[in-house]
Specification:
- By secondary structure, the chain is mainly α.
- It is built from 3 helices and no strands.
Length: about 70
């Protein structure tokens, strides 16, 4: 989604090239960072994370209660 650069696991040369690209193109790096921040805010907002954790705990408790019955 244009908010990062993907590099295959273990591709040290690819990672170095991606880092060089960001250093050589600071405007592009800033744009990628801004898009990444927006994505993180949208997907990992505190209220959403609390709701997901609450659901997780409720589901686990229901599962545990079902095994005990």
């Amino acid at each position: 989604d244009d908010c990062g650069i993907l590099v295959p696991i273990g591709d040290v040369a690819g990672l170095a090239a991606a880092m060089d690209r960001l250093v050589d193109h600071p405007d592009e790096a800033a744009d990628i960072g801004a898009r990444g921040r927006i994505r993180m805010i949208e997907r990992f907002d505190l209220a959403r994370l609390l709701t997901l954790h609450d659901k997780l705990y409720r589901d686990l408790l229901e599962e545990r209660a079902g095994r005990s019955a």
